[in-house]
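Write out the 3D structure for:
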Amino acid sequence: MFPEFEVVPAVDMQDGQVVQLVGGERGTGRTYGDPVEAATRWVDAGAGTLHLVDLDGAFEGERQNAAAIDAVLDAVDVDVQLGGGIRTSEDAIGLLDRGVDRVILGTAAVENPDIVADVSATHPGSVVVSLDAKGGEVVVSGWTEGTGLDPAEAATRYADLGAGAILFTDVDVEGQLEGVRTEPVRRVVEAVDIPVVASGGVATIEDVQALKEAGAAAVVVGSALYEGEFTLAEAQRAADEV
């Protein structure tokens, strides 16, 4: 997984449309159209992986954008990682069997850590545990509930349970286009021997480079790409130069 550093476009979905939230707050999103059009646009631009999130599923606790996700899976031929509303091992395994390459487990992994081991037993390396941090602690249920968990300590626990990677999202800077914070990412990277995918706050190509230098194996980028702050090719090329 991510043998080379990769810039991964985000396709976050709400009510069947691509949406980018600000600071993880519901109702703050800006809409960017049809998910299939967005997904194919990024693949045409050179994406090797797509990051799909069912935002409604994350908030409601069950998948809400299944039709849009199925349409994206049918339309593209690159790796796809999917999160949002996946709460049981049966749901996760069903999605993997459907064609999703990696499932992202956040709330489910916090509430039932054994789900990571259960899914990994049949689909090794396919679980990405999402550790979304707000105010220095892991938050769940669409970033609305604190857990008291330290992200680096939690990452170690899930790596031991068989997680293939950690997705670390800095919610405090998510969607704001004001830059990244590398120290929280570095702490998680140093805690585990599995890939850490960074997300949140990317506004410039220099942010992408900084996250690579902090040890991230990949970076998920949403708003900056949709707003045209830089192109996917420019970001990947700059990262390759680090």
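The CA atoms of residues 170 and 184 lie 8 Å apart.
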